Every structure is written in structure tokens, then in C-alpha cells.
């Protein structure tokens, strides 16, 4: 009943396929038995040594069973966007009403059609290529087929085996490879693919099987020689451009998808590298996948690997068919392709020439429609339909279940046979939203981030150097402060600058997520992991570095400045610095999720932190801030750590900071001779009816705190508020990812 057929290839591993023979008299219960049988086939495909069930019926053992077929069809795809005209000063002048339609349209948004009634079809084992000049709609068509256009904006239908694909199902059975190579630079090729396997392959699959899948994929991609080489970037030498592109493809096909979409996979590559990439895609298609890609200008060798072509011009189809039909098509159009000339180059050049003419490509579009109708009438190009199946009522989910059973979709759902009343059996496909539980995702993300960071120690080194140098400068400027009124004022300045430094130092982390943004969007677009897992992992990874920086700054400044509090004071000082780093890092991380550009992000961060410092209570006390700005005082991230360190320093009620004649310090009377100050102090004493000597304490730490308006929260409450701000901004970061990374066109 079931037979495993291995497709041998010199450069690729074996792929297992389950063939289904035609059984016109099979009962409904046979389907359940078949699924039980193919379930065992899947175990063999992934390396399980469990014995396969014996064939259910020896009469059918000699029948060669076809692979479960898939046909992707799309019909009348239309997509338009609103484009507002450029701002013109003349448009701002009120105009009188007019019947002239051109004048009436001034200032109104225009509609631009990016796709206009595009139709086509392809099947597993084939590569469909979408060609056209820049702006023709190639990437838009790929996005439409991959469900990357918002629901309601795209008109038309996309079906697999005649059934409309649900978004959740499509995410499981498909993969999308972006045009840019979005990879972590300090990971090796093997590590990159292994992390992709950890994300996309289910937890139930042993790690040894995942490693086997990665090794097989490395061989399939033809990058065995580069397996232990880092990806590299501008500052680190790594693999070549063609190898990077193949690694990018490998990440998205680690789970062996049924549908594979690629946006210009050969862009920026030389002819040889482009050919190698498309050759890999051909192997993937032959393993039972449908491959659809956009390509700018394929070479003759690349063209030989393509099965179907769609030429677009400004959103219209100007040709749809096989590469072999191109010469006849253009010959009948009246522009035959010269011998020994690249067919696609000739076609694209002709299309560009027509686009520059007065009539445009309208004539070619109309000719293509007539040519397609003529081919259908002559039965030269019948519509694609899945080959005859022994189960004509096989639904799409049942077909996917059978495909899973033969080894496709390693992270896909599990197929199961369900027994109904009357002896009927059907299949159910359990489609998991994610391949792994959240704690596995957090563990894998954390491991990957720490590995990538550990290989770039210069990043932490620069931050550490900035913190230590700042601490050293502060320590030498505010060296061993005394307890005089001037010492108090200098302490206030030190604390304000030190606490704001914690937040400004965190601005250096702004590019971290901006560099990972598109990697994150690519991986979450097809549910590699949850957004919440990324947020939690991002926070966990940041904590060790923050602890290290906090201890370094505290050790540099605490004893040098002469701060008070003893061991417990030092501990709290370290904690509030850590809390400030945590809050500042979370704030900058949130902004990186909202602002897409580094320079714009830096501008916003510096401006907002300046406002936080202004309203922290150092430059102006709380009771002097206008009522209409008091809300910003309570929102200031600098306020709470600043008040916390003040209370930590001036919490000793027995410690005196102003004695006797020191009351005249920081005033014009401070310049008087000591004898004159004593006489003035005696005069003040007699006037007040009390005795004030040169040793009388006039202001303690509690008085300093009251003067600064630090009376509402204790230092521990200030610490908790600072930490809470950090969690608050992490939650906002999550929502910014949730709302801002839909990865779909509107």
C-alpha cells in the first residue's frame, strides 16, 4: 500500500515521498488506515527506528503511488493604493468651483494600481518566476501570494488545490525569503541554521534529529565548506554574498515548506552565484515544494532552470507561460527574438521600450489576453489540476496531512485519523500556532543573543569605558566632598549629573534593536517565536551587562567622592544605579521599537532625557514648578533615582551640614572676615533670644531634604518606582512590536 521512494542526487540528501495509487473501489475507512501507515513512513524519514506497519493489502504493493500533488492558483489579483499629490503652494489658494475635471482633482488623493487583474497557476516541483522592470509590481505580486497584504486591500483569490488558504495555515506551510540577507554577523553558518531549527522544528523532535536536518540542509544548499565560518559584516570578514543568500534561504526552508516565496533572491549576485542560488531552489522544488520568486534579469543558464514565467509591466500581465513559449509569443506579436540572444533580456528591453511610447504596453497586454484564450481553445495549455487521486474527496487539510506524513513540514501539524459513526474515517490536521512553548523560545533567543554579543566584546567594552571614564571624571572633580554648605551643594550637583549619566549612557543601546528589527520581523512573520518571548529574552540578555556597569560606576565614585551610608549605603547606591540603568535601557528599547531611524532616535532620546533632567527637582524644586508642568515632574525618570540617592546620603538625622557662621556661606556675607561673621552671629542670637555659637548645628540632613522638596517617597519606594518604570517600558515595547511589525502592506 505504501512505498518510500528516495530521489537520488549527487549534491543533495535523500528526500522521502509517499505515493498514492488509484484505488477506485477503496472504502472510506481505508483513508484512516493509510494515514496510520504514512505516519510510520514519517518516522523513518526523520530517523525513528520504529518498525513500519506491514502493507495493508499486498495486491497494491506493486502500484507506484504518486506524491500528494499541490497546485497554487491565483485569479484576478488587484491591488491599489492611494497616492496624494505633492504639496504645491498654488494648491493652498482657494479656487472657485469649476467643471474642469483636471482642476477639480487638484489636491485630491489619486489611486495607483500596483496589480491589475493578475492570474496564473503553478504546481509542486516547479519554479515560477515573476519578471519586470523596477516598479512593475514583482514584489507586490509575491507579497499578495504570500498573504503580506492586509485583508480587504487585495481583491481576487489565491487557492491551493482549489481551496482558499487561511492565514494561520499559510504561515505553517509556507516560507518567505526577503530580498536582504538579514543574519546575525557573528554566528557561523551552522549555528545560524541550528538556531533556525530550534525555532521552527517542534520540541518533540530530538536535538540529534535537528542536527541531522541542519547537516542535510547544508549539503542541499552547497555550503559545506563555509559551515564553520561566521556570517560576517562590514567589520568582520565572513562568507561570500552568494553563500549569504543561500543561508538566508536555508533559514526559511529549515522546516521544508510546501510553498516558498522569494523576493529577488539573485539581486546583487554575480552570474555564477545567481545560478547556484537558483539551482538550490530547483532542488527544493523537486523535493515537493512550490517555488515562486521575483527576479530582475535572469541569465541564460538561470532561465533553463525556470518552469513558468510571468512578465509584468506597471501592474499588468504582458506574458504568462513557459520559457519555451517566449519565441513563439513575441514572433506572433510581431517582434521575433533574434537567434543567440537572451530571451528574457530581449523581452524586458522590448517592454521598457513600449513603456516609454505613447500607447505604452496596452497592445502587448491585450495581445497576451488573446494569446492565452487561443491557447486554451487549442488545448495547448490546459488548466493545472492535481492528478487523479484514489480519494477524490481529499480536502486540502487531508492533503497537507499526507504531505506531513511523508516528511514535509517538519514543524507542521500532526495528522490523525478520526473514526465517525457508520465506519467512516476522516483526517484532522492540528496546526500549532508555534512550534515550541514560550520557555523554549526564551531560552533559544537568549542563547543566540548572548553568543552573538560574546563574540563582539568591543560593544560592552565601549559602554564600560564610557561609564568608567565618566565616573573617573566625576570622582576627580568632586573629590572627597566635605560636610559644609558648599559640600552639600556640590553633592546635589554630583547626584544630578551622575543619575542623568545612567540614562544618557543607555542611549548607546538604541541601534541594537534597530539592527535586529528586520530579522525580528522576518522570523515572527511566520511564527518562528512569540513577540513576548523576544521581549522577555531581550530584557534577560541586558541584565548581566547592566549589573557589570553598575558595579563599575559605583566602585569608581562612591569612596572617591566620599559618600555617606556605610556598607548598606553602598549597597543601595549600587541598586539605584542598576535600577536607573534598567529603566533607561527599557526606555531606549521602547523608543527603538517606535522610531525606525538611528539618527532620529538619538535626537528624540537626548531631547526627552534633557526634559527629564530639567524636571527632576535639581534645577527647580517641586513646589516651584508651575501647575501646568507638574505632571512632567512625576513622569521624569531622573526624579526618582535622584531623590533616592539624596535620601541615602542625607538620611542620618544626627549628621550636621551647617554649623554657626557657615550659615553665611553661599551668600555675599560669606566673604566677610571670620571675626565679623562671629559678631553678626551674636547679633542674630540676641535678636532671636537664643544662643547660636560657632559649633551650633543649624541644618541636618532632614533639613536638606525638606529644602529640596524630597518628602513624598522613601528611598526604597523611589527604587521600586524606578524599577517599575523599566517594566512599564518593556510592556510598551511589546505593544510597539505587536502593532508595528505586522509585516503586511495596508
UniProtKB/TrEMBL annotation:
Membrane topology of the entry: Multi-pass membrane protein
One cellular component (GO) term of this entry: membrane
GO molecular function: ABC-type transporter activity; ATP binding; ATP hydrolysis activity
Keyword set includes Ribonucleoprotein: no
Keyword ATP-binding: yes
Keywords recorded for this protein, A-Z: ATP-binding, Membrane, Nucleotide-binding, Transmembrane, Transmembrane helix, Transport
Domain ABC transporter, chain residue ranges per copy: 87-339
Record-linked InterPro entries: AAA+_ATPase, ABC2_TM, ABC_transporter-like_ATP-bd, ABC_transporter-like_CS, ABCG_transporters, P-loop_NTPase
Protein name as it appears in the record: ABC transporter domain-containing protein
Amino acid at each position: 500500500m505504501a512505498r518510500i521512494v528516495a530521489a537520488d542526487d549527487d549534491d543533495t540528501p535523500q528526500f522521502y515521498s509517499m505515493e498514492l495509487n488509484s484505488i477506485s473501489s477503496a472504502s472510506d475507512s481505508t483513508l484512516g488506515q493509510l494515514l496510520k501507515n504514512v505516519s510510520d513512513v514519517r518516522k523513518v524519514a526523520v530517523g525513528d527506528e520504529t518498525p513500519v506497519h506491514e502493507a495493508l493489502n499486498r495486491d497494491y504493493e506493486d502500484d507506484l503511488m504518486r506524491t500528494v500533488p499541490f497546485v497554487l492558483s491565483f485569479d484576478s489579483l488587484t491591488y491599489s493604493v492611494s497616492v496624494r499629490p505633492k504639496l504645491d503652494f498654488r494648491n493652498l489658494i482657494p479656487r472657485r468651483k469649476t467643471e474642469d475635471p483636471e482642476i477639480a482633482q487638484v489636491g485630491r488623493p489619486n489611486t495607483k494600481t500596483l496589480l491589475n487583474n493578475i492570474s496564473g497557476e503553478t504546481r509542486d516541483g516547479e519554479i515560477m518566476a515573476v519578471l519586470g522592470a523596477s516598479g512593475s509590481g514583482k514584489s507586490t505580486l509575491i507579497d499578495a501570494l504570500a498573504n503580506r497584504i492586509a485583508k480587504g486591500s487585495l481583491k481576487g483569490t489565491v487557492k491551493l488545490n482549489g481551496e482558499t488558504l487561511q492565514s494561520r495555515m499559510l504561515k505553517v506551510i509556507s516560507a518567505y525569503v526577503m530580498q536582504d540577507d538579514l543574519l546575525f554577523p557573528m554566528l557561523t553558518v551552522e549555528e545560524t541554521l541550528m538556531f533556525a531549527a530550534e525555532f521552527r522544528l517542534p520540541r518533540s523532535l530530538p536535538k540529534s534529529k535537528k542536527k541531522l536536518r541542519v547537516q542535510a540542509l547544508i549539503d542541499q544548499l552547497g555550503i559545506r565548506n563555509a559551515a564553520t565560518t561566521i556570517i560576517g559584516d562590514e567589520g568582520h570578514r565572513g562568507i561570500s554574498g552568494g553563500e549569504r543568500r543561500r543561508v538566508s534561504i536555508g533559514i526559511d526552508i529549515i522546516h521544508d515548506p510546501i510553498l516558498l516565496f522569494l523576493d529577488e533572491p539573485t539581486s546583487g549576485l554575480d552570474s555564477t552565484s545567481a545560478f547556484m542560488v537558483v539551482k538550490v531552489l530547483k532542488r527544493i522544488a523537486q523535493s515537493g515544494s512550490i517555488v515562486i520568486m521575483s527576479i530582475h534579469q535572469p541569465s541564460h543558464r538561470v532561465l533553463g532552470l525556470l518552469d513558468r514565467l510571468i512578465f509584468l509591466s506597471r501592474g499588468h500581465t504582458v506574458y504568462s507561460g513557459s520559457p519555451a513559449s517566449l519565441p513563439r509569443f513575441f514572433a506572433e506579436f510581431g517582434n521575433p527574438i533574434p537567434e543567440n540572444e537572451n530571451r528574457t533580456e530581449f523581452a524586458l528591453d522590448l517592454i521598457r521600450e513600449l513603456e516609454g511610447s505613447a500607447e505604452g504596453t496596452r497592445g502587448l497586454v491585450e495581445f497576451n489576453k488573446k494569446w492565452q484564450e487561443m491557447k486554451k481553445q487549442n488545448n495547448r495549455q490546459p488548466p493545472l489540476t492535481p492528478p487523479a487521486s484514489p480519494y477524490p474527496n481529499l480536502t486540502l487539510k487531508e492533503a497537507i496531512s499526507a504531505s506531513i506524513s511523508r516528511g514535509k513540514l517538519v514543524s507542521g501539524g500532526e495528522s490523525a485519523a478520526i473514526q465517525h459513526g457508520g465506519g467512516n474515517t476522516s483526517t484532522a490536521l492540528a496546526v500549532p500556532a508555534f512550534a515550541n512553548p514560550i520557555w523554549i523560545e526564551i531560552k533559544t533567543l537568549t542563547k543566540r543573543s548572548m553568543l552573538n554579543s560574546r563574540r563582539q566584546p568591543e560593544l560592552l567594552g565601549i559602554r564600560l569605558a564610557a561609564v568608567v571614564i565618566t565616573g573617573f571624571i566625576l570622582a576627580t572633580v568632586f573629590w572627597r566632598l566635605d560636610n559644609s554648605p558648599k559640600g552639600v551643594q556640590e553633592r546635589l550637583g554630583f547626584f544630578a549629573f551622575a543619575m542623568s549619566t545612567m540614562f544618557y549612557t543607555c542611549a548607546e543601546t538604541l541601534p541594537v534593536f534597530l539592527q535586529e528589527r528586520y530579522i525580528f520581523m522576518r522570523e515572527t512573520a511566520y511564527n518562528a517565536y512569540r513577540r513576548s518571548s523576544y521581549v522577555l529574552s531581550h530584557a534577560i540578555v541586558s541584565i548581566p551587562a547592566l549589573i557589570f556597569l553598575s558595579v563599575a560606576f559605583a566602585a569608581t565614585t562612591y569612596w572617591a567622592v566620599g559618600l555617606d551610608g556605610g556598607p548598606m549605603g553602598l549597597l543601595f547606591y549600587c541598586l539605584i544605579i542598576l535600577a536607573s540603568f534598567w529603566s533607561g535601557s527599557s526606555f531606549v528599547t521602547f523608543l527603538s521599537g517606535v522610531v525606525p531611524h538611528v539618527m532620529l532616535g538619538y535626537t528624540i532620546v537626548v531631547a526627552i532625557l534633557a526634559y527629564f533632567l530639567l524636571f527632576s527637582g535639581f534645577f527647580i524644586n517641586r513646589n516651584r514648578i508651575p501647575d501646568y508642568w507638574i505632571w512632567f515632574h512625576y513622569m521624569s525618570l531622573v526624579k526618582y533615582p535622584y531623590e533616592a540617592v539624596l535620601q541615602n546620603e542625607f538620611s542620618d538625622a544626627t549628621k550636621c551640614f551647617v554649623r554657626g557662621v557657615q550659615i553665611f556661606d553661599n551668600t555675599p556675607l560669606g566673604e566677610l572676615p571670620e571675626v565679623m561673621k562671629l559678631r553678626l552671629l551674636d547679633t542674630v542670637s540676641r535678636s532671636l533670644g537664643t544662643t547660636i555659637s560657632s559649633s551650633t548645628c543649624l541644618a541636618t540632613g532632614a533639613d536638606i531634604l525638606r529644602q529640596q522638596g524630597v518628602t513624598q517617597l522613601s528611598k526604597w519606594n523611589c527604587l521600586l518606582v524606578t524599577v517599575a518604570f523599566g517594566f512599564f517600558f518593556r510592556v510598551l515595547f511589546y505593544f510597539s512590536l505587536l502593532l508595528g511589525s505586522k509585516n503586511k502592506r495596508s
